[in-house]
Amino acid sequence: MSSIRELARRCGVSVATVSRVFNTPEVVSQRTRQHVLDMAAEIGYLPNESARTLATKKSNMVGLVWDTDHRRPGWRHPFLQDILVALKSALSAQGLHLLMLAPDQSAGLDPGQRFVRAVQRHNVDGVVVIDNGSRDPAVLALADAGVPCVALDLRFTGPRCTYITSDNHGGGRLAAAHLIERGHRRIATITGPLPAWPAVRRLAGFRAALAEAGVPLADTDIESGDWYLDSGHAAMNRLLARDPRPTAVFAAGDEMAVGAMRAIHEAGLRIPDDIAIIGFDDIEVAALIPPGLTTIAQDKTGIGTGAAEAMVAMLLGTAPPPGPTTLPTTLVTRGST
């Protein structure tokens, strides 16, 4: 691999000029910058990341705090995986790397500073936060730490913080309206983990639409889950034990909806003839399982890309942190309703 001195010699410029091209390109003329970059590509020169970090005080690294709770296999959830792919791709396009941050477990460290210390140790330029709804103080402490933060589906407030989310309330309303249009009046729901913000908002929108249509929703019509298959299966079995049982169910996450569908099939019932079911997320499997899951689609690519764009805007520091962003949700009708 060629050295910075070799690159400078071939370009006929000083080593300092080459360094500025890679570290502070705005101070170099466009002609010189392009000449150096073209020669760097020709001879296979790559700048030393450690040296660049020391020179610019920036690591070009964005930390990912993914607090899914040790009891939940968060890395496995397909909805979060899709967001992560979009986030990483958009950051990479801006020359930024994504680093998964584990909480610092140093002896004697205040537990509330576990993620703040991890940010400091790895010298990341900013942090993207995906929270499980637990409102962990160690996660919330990031908002006061001064590091740029973008949260997903979590209301994050602070001097250098913003968040991006879906219209969960509107999505809940869409789900209820669709089931009502299908003629259902005995409707139940399987919520996400309360008080996680997306779960609360989806339930609130669902309730509001039912109330406006004069359709009752008793406390016994509400079962809680944790976004995953097994919780949807267990919650559906509890709903099937009701007398009378519901004719339709809104599961606030597609994985829970798939688990609920399995319970319905195991009970010898037909979807949607005996029980209709609608989910939320529009993960890939929703279109693959029979009879096809009707669902409320979130813009997963938009969430990941939007988070990356907000982070880049804050790192550039040319304007105040962007305000919170809410992306629309849409109804995708398939065979389950």
From TrEMBL:
Keywords: DNA-binding, Transcription, Transcription regulation
Record bears the keyword Transmembrane helix: no
Gene3D superfamilies according to UniProt: 3.40.50.2300, lambda repressor-like DNA-binding domains
PANTHER family referenced in this protein's UniProt entry, alphabetically: HTH-TYPE TRANSCRIPTIONAL REGULATOR GALS (PTHR30146:SF109), LACI-RELATED TRANSCRIPTIONAL REPRESSOR (PTHR30146)
Any one GO molecular-function label of the UniProt entry: DNA-binding transcription factor activity
A Pfam family of this chain: Peripla_BP_3
Protein name per Swiss-Prot or TrEMBL: LacI family transcriptional regulator
UniProt keyword annotation of Chloroplast present: no
Domain (HTH lacI-type): residue spans on this chain: 2-56
